[in-house]
């Protein structure tokens, strides 16, 4: 789906069409707007428990926990973006078994 998996200069470059089924990866402008909500949900489910554990179990201050969450969020940002785009595409485009290998 993505052209170069580890290219940090252009992390969201995608092929225009799927090489197997010829699916258009950009069917309309703003198609991946919904992926933003999936990305937010994934980040919240990962970062919020980490922050709560850091504060309540280990006694960190709010600023220390926030710094940790910013660091962890920055490290996983591109991966989360790619996962959310893939998930949004899978939710919005019906699966066609005739293209399975």
Written description of the protein model:
About 5% of the residues are buried. This protein is about 50% helix and about 0% strand. The chain is an all-alpha fold. The protein contains three helices and no strands.
The number of helical elements comes to: 3
Largest sheet: none
Shape: elongated
- How much helical structure, as a percent, in the residues? 40-55%
Summarize the structure.
The protein has 101 residues and is mainly α. Helix content is 51%, strand content 0%.
List keywords for this structure.
101 residues, mainly alpha, 51% helix, 0% strand, elongated
Chain-wise SSE layout:
Elements: H1 35-56, H2 62-75, H3 77-92
